[in-house]
Amino acid sequence: MPDMSASASLAMTHLVSFAKEVDEDKVTPGVLGFIVFAAMALAVWALMKSMSRHMNRVDFTQVPDPKAEQPEQTPADADADAEPSGQVGKKQG
């Protein structure tokens, strides 16, 4: 089995040389920025899942108000409210 310390040392050598190439005047978010972004993404995902679950529970059928209930007219009742057929178009006077 190969010695892990040698490969770890080689990896650190590459990382150190990469770190020297990075401009020290630049501001980068780093690991903390990634952790904060990941936490916010998980929070948004959890909120969307919760909202979806709550919206699925909502009953969108409208219940009629019993106080405002009015009897519906049938087609026969609608004809009775109209003028009699013999008096259509005649003037009274």
Could you write a compact summary of the structure shown?
57% of the residues lie in helices and 0% in strands. It is mostly helical.
How is this structure best described in words?
- The protein is mainly α.
- The protein is built from 3 helices and no strands.
- The longest helix is centred in the middle third of the chain and has 28 residues, at 30-57.
- The mean pLDDT is 75.
List the helices and strands and how they pair.
Elements (H helix, E strand, L loop, with lengths): L3 H18 L8 H28 L17 H7 L12
Descriptive keywords:
3 helices; mainly alpha; 57% helix; 93 residues; 0% strand; single chain
**Count of β-strands:** 0
Sheet bearing the most strands, described? none
Which segments are poorly predicted (pLDDT under 50) over 5 or more consecutive residues?
A: none
Which percent range fits the helix content? Answer: 55-70%
Structural class determined from secondary elements: mainly alpha
Average per-residue pLDDT, rounded, comes to 75
Strand content: under 5%
Task: Tell me the distance between the termini.
Answer: 119 Å
